[in-house]
Amino acid sequence: MLETTLGLEIIEVVEKAAIASARWMGKGEKDTADLVAVEAMRERMNEIHMRGRIVIGEGERDDAPMLYIGEEVGICTREDAKDYCNPDELIEIDIAVDPCEGTNLCAYGQPGSMAVLAISEKGGLFHAPDFYMKKLAAPSAAKGKVDIRKSATENLKILGECLDRAIDELVVVVMKRDRHTELIQEIRDAGARVRLISDGDVSAAISCGFSGTNTHALMGIGAAPEGVISAAAMRCLGGHFQGQLIYDPAIVKTGLIGESRESNLARLKEMGIDDADKVYEAEELASGETVLFAACGITSGTLMEGVRFFHQGARTQSLVISSQSQTARFVDTIHMPEKPKLIQLK
Predict the structure, then answer these.
(1) Which of 7, 149, 274, 313 is the least crowded, having the fewest Cβ atoms under 10 Å away?
(2) Over 305-342, what HEC string results?
(3) Which stretch of DSSP H or E encloses residue 95?
(4) pTM of the model
(5) Mean pLDDT of the chain
(6) What structural domains does the chain harbor?
């Protein structure tokens, strides 16, 4: 139901956001690149025949005037919705968005920035707090065999056996952060290779779900909201993803919402999360009957080309993954707001 009704619509949502953000690529203004992507995404979502609720967005309402957590989007959220929407046909969905995933990557013209979102039926996506999350992503062959509670050394041995590869043939993506110093050293001591990234671990997680990307695992701590988006994609792909909330500022080392470990624990309890140390599987983070994931490249990366502008138009490459049809579709689109004199293919 979701895919047939909203499949093309959500592709256009991420395309609009990516094109808007790409116009600021390389200009060193990450906040502007993010803002225009948010505005474009919000405008297009409000043209869709649905009642949507943002469960993962740009932050709390006071800090994020657009696409804030709890914001309602879609035609059926208008005050005059009864004129447009039949209650019997109403689609109510939860939406997780990151309009410019990798704002620094976009701002400085580096690879891997993209506009992303995930949707499911109401209640189908985990309402992750704006905390950090320990993550482990791996190919489908290792699903249920590697485990975030095991050491990196143990997981690399298991991963090598699952993929029929020597450990020195494995590539693990880790975000370049002080908190990962020991993890990086352990991976290297085990014999695997490390690819360090500055931002954008959603792309890295999803790359584990595709053969030929030369990405065999994602390890380390990143933002929790992006963890839910990654989990949605990996659930659709059948890949391995686990996440565990990190609430102790001493572990993160770069600051955290909340003043202390104790206040963060209290906040989790207020949100109904009694077991703060629970390890979540992809199927728990994205538990809906139907889950859709969509992304559009802003700058070129492992999975998609970035936005390419030509006179009076642009070309985008998007990815939409569905648990309903069990498909991963790469969509190449030429956008022609005006009649172009030349349509650029290469």
Answers:
(1) 274
(2) CCCEEECCEEEEEEEEEECCCCEEEEEEEEECCCCCCC
(3) strand 92-101
(4) 0.91
(5) 91
(6) 2-125+289-335 (3.30.540.10), 132-285 (3.40.190.90)
